[in-house]
Amino acid sequence: MSKLISKPQMSKESLLPLLAQHILEHGLGGASLRPLAKAAGTSDRMLIYHFGNKEQLLTDVLEHIAGIYSAALDAGVGDERAVTRQQCVARILAQGREPAMQPFMALWWEIVAGAARGIPGYREAAESMMAELLGWLETQMPADDPDPVGGARYLLTLIEGSLMLGVVGHARTAREGLLASDLSPS
Amino acid sequence: MSKLISKPQMSKESLLPLLAQHILEHGLGGASLRPLAKAAGTSDRMLIYHFGNKEQLLTDVLEHIAGIYSAALDAGVGDERAVTRQQCVARILAQGREPAMQPFMALWWEIVAGAARGIPGYREAAESMMAELLGWLETQMPADDPDPVGGARYLLTLIEGSLMLGVVGHARTAREGLLASDLSPS
DNA sequence: GTGCATATGTAGCGAGTGCTACATATGCTT
DNA sequence: AAGCATATGTAGCACTCGCTACATATGCAC
Fold this sequence. Notes:
The structure is a homodimer. The first copy, chain A, is mostly helical and about 190 residues long.
């Protein structure tokens, strides 16, 4: 009885999107091979076969996710330049609150936690992602900003602080904080 | 052969400091009963006996740690009031970078990550801790501050953003951001 | 056809997980 | 002394973990 049903012929590339989806939903820490394999329609056996070991698999998936995130960033903000710093911050915060961004946010804080805990690889991953975000933010600064480089760093600090406060149920605190900053003309 | 060696007569209260120590070192997520028990000089069997289940144990330990942190906060900053907002921020950031604070920081980001992931209990815990920190920060504002309530929220956002950037290897970015803020008189 | 590299299924290993069953030991109350 | 609530040790259960051993199946080169 020959099995002629189908030979999906899977590969790293074909697996990565499904694995990324699962990681975004369930996180890095709780991810174990067998559920990942089921999500990707294969077996733990094959995940190890393709990626060598779990750590390499997670590294590859993270890289894949970073690519998706970059694209989402550019697509999410309109292409007309912000006029004021306040407007710039508001737009990015609004985008960060989008439901579609939630899985990325959850994953991001998990990476931050790993970096703080000193888990090998996490700090490096977080550092490069943050560097990329900073570079992107510089391009989003108002065209007539007197100090786009320093300003981007200032806004990044405010944005990340606001996002964190939002995550822990203090979105209102962050909003009131921004109102008391120099971004809001009295 | 009677065993007269010693009867440690343990209790929740006597276990909590040792458990807290272990959690601060190794994190919440990776904590499992047997290593915790070894750290506390007892058995997994007795941890369940005293706390009922693992979740309750972690809840109790977290509460214990929050108490320690509160005390460390007050002790860490000198008792003379800051004169400027900039000074206020600088002092708190300096304290957050102290080696002794590192375990608390790592635990904090783990809680934030759990809150972002929606793990039951984490958001509530984080929210109340942050509320307490905000209240404390209001008392640390300069005496002549024109808007201590809004200002505390503004500074909290900047501080948490700076701490996060520091964790991911972007302490310099945060520093330059603060230099470009209204806290640094040009 | 005959090898041979690539790909996949089945079974399992040794370690660790939270938690429980059962047997005691201890010290207080009556 | 008897009974009883509190406390503790020993063993183990049913499960998951990352990973491996072994057996194949497939398709291509010669």
